[in-house]
Amino acid sequence: MEILETIAWDKLQNGLIPAIAQDYQTNEVLMLAFMNKEALELSLQSGYAHYFSRTKNRLWKKGEQSGHTQEIIECYLDCDKDTLLLKVKQKGVACHTGNHTCFFNQITLDSIVQKSSKTIDTSNLYGAIDTLYHTLLERKNSDPNTSYTASLYHKGENTIAKKIVEEAAELGFAIKDKNAKEIIYETADLLYHSLVGLAYRDLSPDLVKQEIIRRFGLSGIEEKNSREK
């Protein structure tokens, strides 16, 4: 596409252009995401918004899991040719939290107030792992005195790492004891604390899924030899 060459890709960080999605009828700002050249080309060709996820490190179609797609009505490029504005027809909600827009946290110099207006329960639209991970990310703004997850973040990496080691050991003992119920409980505990660790470092579990997919068809020896040093 000739239009792709007019964008100032060379001055964009990591070749990603910010894309603002706006409701085409109300002009409400719904979300901000990023596109690489391939995502923009797919968006213009298909008529539906595709973005590049910096946390998942891959291309994704808006609504690929939830069905909450964004049909592009109009697309604008700003005067500096380094930002996009998409006028979209939003199906369902734009935010994974169930809010119509991603912009519902009102901030001041010393506080964050949620102006939440959830219209959809998204717990049944995303996988349990993805839903939990996003919940853990939200807990970063919670009070450590009232939220266990927030208290782990507050205590830092040493505490988080220690909990992961403890839960792994408890799972090992449960497996050794052949206690099915405890194995399930301890596996859930280990998964939860592992996701806390990923969220602490802002690493999406989707990256782990991609790594598992990469390993399909490889023996353990081949897989270890294929890792980057």
UniProtKB/TrEMBL annotation:
The organism's place on the tree of life at top rank: Bacteria
Pathway the protein contributes to: Amino-acid biosynthesis; L-histidine biosynthesis; L-histidine from 5-phospho-alpha-D-ribose 1-diphosphate: step 3/9; Amino-acid biosynthesis; L-histidine biosynthesis; L-histidine from 5-phospho-alpha-D-ribose 1-diphosphate: step 2/9
Pfam families listed in its UniProt record: PRA-CH, PRA-PH
Main location: cytoplasm
GO terms of biological process kind: L-histidine biosynthetic process
MF (Gene Ontology): ATP binding; phosphoribosyl-AMP cyclohydrolase activity; phosphoribosyl-ATP diphosphatase activity
Entry EC number(s): 3.5.4.19, 3.6.1.31
Annotated localization: Cytoplasm
Family to which the UniProt record says this protein belongs: In the N-terminal section; belongs to the PRA-CH family. In the C-terminal section; belongs to the PRA-PH family.
Keyword Hydrolase in record: yes
Region entry Phosphoribosyl-ATP pyrophosphohydrolase, spans: 129-229
Region ranges (Phosphoribosyl-AMP cyclohydrolase): 1-128
Entry GO CC: cytoplasm
Name this polypeptide is given: Histidine biosynthesis bifunctional protein HisIE
Domain Phosphoribosyl-AMP cyclohydrolase: 31-104
UniProt lineage: Bacteria, Pseudomonadati, Campylobacterota, Epsilonproteobacteria, Campylobacterales
Catalytic reaction list: 1-(5-phospho-beta-D-ribosyl)-5'-AMP + H2O = 1-(5-phospho-beta-D-ribosyl)-5-[(5-phospho-beta-D-ribosylamino)methylideneamino]imidazole-4-carboxamide; 1-(5-phospho-beta-D-ribosyl)-ATP + H2O = 1-(5-phospho-beta-D-ribosyl)-5'-AMP + diphosphate + H(+)
Keyword terms: Amino-acid biosynthesis, ATP-binding, Cytoplasm, Histidine biosynthesis, Hydrolase, Multifunctional enzyme, Nucleotide-binding
SUPFAM superfamilies per UniProt: all-alpha NTP pyrophosphatases, HisI-like
